[in-house]
Design goal:
binds zinc ion; Hypothetical Cytosolic Protein, Chain: A; 5 strands; two-stranded antiparallel sheet; alpha+beta; three-stranded antiparallel beta sheet; 3 helices
Length: 95
């Protein structure tokens, strides 16, 4: 189980979106396979916004996120959310 960086709810990893801290910055990690410190967030736009903008994710990853990074990561996360929802609606399973 992992904890959402925004609402602190504990969920299985598969129900959370992973962010990974890389040497060049933080990346969205939908496959949950990237090396580096990871932070998790519910598959929920409100939680993603909160985790990124209120510093919960940055704290979990022990790094600082610039405004530009927050904007980029929020856009990538929301895009992933949209794709995943579309997949769910089509009844496809992942992997
Ligand atoms: Zn959450």
């Amino acid at each position: 189980m992992r904890r959402c960086a925004a609402c602190r709810t504990r969920r299985p990893k598969g129900e959370l979106l992973r962010f990974a801290r890389q040497s060049h910055g933080v990346e969205v990690d939908p496959g949950q396979l990237r090396p580096g410190r990871g932070g998790y967030c519910c598959l929920d736009q409100a939680c993603i916004d909160r985790a990124l903008r209120r510093g919960g994710l940055a704290r979990t990853l022990r790094t600082a996120l610039s405004e530009a990074e927050v904007t980029r990561l929020a856009a990538q996360a929301v895009e992933y959310l949209r794709e995943r929802k579309a997949q769910d609606l089509r009844g496809e399973s992942r992997g």
